Amino acid sequence: LDATDRSFLNLLINVYGGGPVGIETLAAALGEDSTTLETVVEPFLMQAGFLQRTSRGRVVTPEGEKHFLLTSVNKVN
User: Fold this and answer.
1) DSSP 8-class letter at 18
2) pLDDT tens readout for residues 3-27
3) pLDDT (tens digit, 9 = 90+) per residue, 33-48?
4) Other C-beta atoms within 10 Å of 48: how many?
């Protein structure tokens, strides 16, 4: 995951409790264009199984949360 992917997951997990969150809200919070998030960041995270798009917004999958938390712990140590 690159810095944008980690920021996206961090925001979803730590600020919005894993979602659901709308793309415009995420874009504003990250300072990114929503189109960039939809075409660059989300496809990779969905392919990796870390993100789902729902009718209510974006949601982190259990696998995404586990991966994010494990990699975050490793960066602290």
Assistant:
1) T
2) 899 999 999 999 999 999 999 999 9
3) 999 999 999 999 999 9
4) 14
The single-letter code of the amino acid at 20 is P
* pTM passes above 0.90: no
b/e burial code for range 19-38 (CB count within 10 A of at least 16 → b): bbbeeeebbeebebeeeebe
What backbone phi and psi angles, to 5 degrees, belong to 51?
-145, 145
65 neighbors 13 (Cβ within 8 angstroms): yes
User: How far is the C-alpha of 72 from the C-alpha of 77, rounded, in Å?
Assistant: 9
27, two tokens:
């874009």
